[in-house]
Automatic annotation (TrEMBL):
Organism: Monopterus albus (Swamp eel)
SMART domains the UniProt entry points to: SET
Protein name: SET domain-containing protein
PROSITE patterns: POST_SET, SET
Residue ranges the record marks as coiled coil: none
Keywords: Chromatin regulator, Methyltransferase, S-adenosyl-L-methionine, Transcription, Transcription regulation, Transferase
Gene3D superfamilies in the cross-refs: SET domain (2.170.270.10)
A Gene Ontology cellular-component term: histone methyltransferase complex
Post-SET domain sequence ranges: 102-118
GO MF term (any one): histone H3K4 methyltransferase activity
Pfam families: SET
Top-rank taxon: Eukaryota
Residue ranges constituting the SET domain according to the UniProt record: 1-94
Length: 118
């Protein structure tokens, strides 16, 4: 285990309203949300920890898992291999596949980069 992705749990159905009302992009605030399942999202934008800054990579050194602890779901980042001092932590964001018009470019720089996050 490397770190838990911490933040406030919100319902998926409120995710976009929550974002647009509280964290307007014009305010210059980044959005750090991680989907737990079809119903809940962890928002780490204002009340998260350093896990929110872990970047995507097509060849990551970590992976994420949702684990259940005493009836509560937690997102935990685990190491895939030994991670060396000063090495950036990365995991595959595994965004849902979208059609060509909604593709998000990937700039991870990995040898086998897929070129898109979704």
């Amino acid at each position: 285990m490397v770190i838990e992705y911490a933040g406030i749990v919100i319902r998926s159905e409120d995710e976009m309203l929550y974002f647009w009302v509280l964290f307007l992009p014009s305010q210059g605030i980044g959005c750090y949300m991680f989907r737990i399942d079809d119903f809940d999202v962890v928002d780490a934008t204002m009340h998260g920890n350093a896990a929110r800054f872990i970047n995507h990579s097509c060849e990551p050194n970590c992976y994420s898992r949702v684990i259940n602890v005493e009836g509560r779901k937690h997102i935990v980042i685990f190491a895939l291999r030994k991670i060396y001092r000063g090495e950036e932590l990365t995991y595959d964001y595994k965004f849902p596949i979208e059609d060509a018009s909604n593709k998000l470019s990937c700039n991870c720089g990995a040898r086998r980069c897929r070129r898109f996050l979704n």
